[in-house]
Design goal:
Layout lengths: L13 H19 L3 H12 L2 H21 L1 H4 L1
Helix pairs in contact: 1-3
Length: 76
């Protein structure tokens, strides 16, 4: 079996689940724009753009929903 950056969506706690959601979101950006130089250069364009920051929050929330569902909402 090969090593995977995402071996599972299962986490012990909701806090770990949220951290995983952030990681999923950041990885999507890296896969979409593989050039670290370009990502760093355009960071200033959205760093103070409130619409972009809200959009980023939405992506994390969507990923967190996915992780939460995979965890049975932490087996409640």
């Amino acid at each position: 079996m090969t090593d995977s950056w995402l071996p599972t969506l299962l986490t012990e706690t909701s806090e770990e689940g949220y951290a995983l959601a952030v990681r999923l979101s950041r990885t999507a950006v890296k896969l979409t724009q593989p050039s670290a130089e370009v990502r760093e250069r355009v960071r200033a364009d959205y760093a103070e753009d409130f619409g972009a920051l809200i959009a980023i929050s939405h992506v994390v929330a969507t990923n967190f929903h996915t992780v939460a569902a995979a965890n049975g909402f932490w087996r409640s």
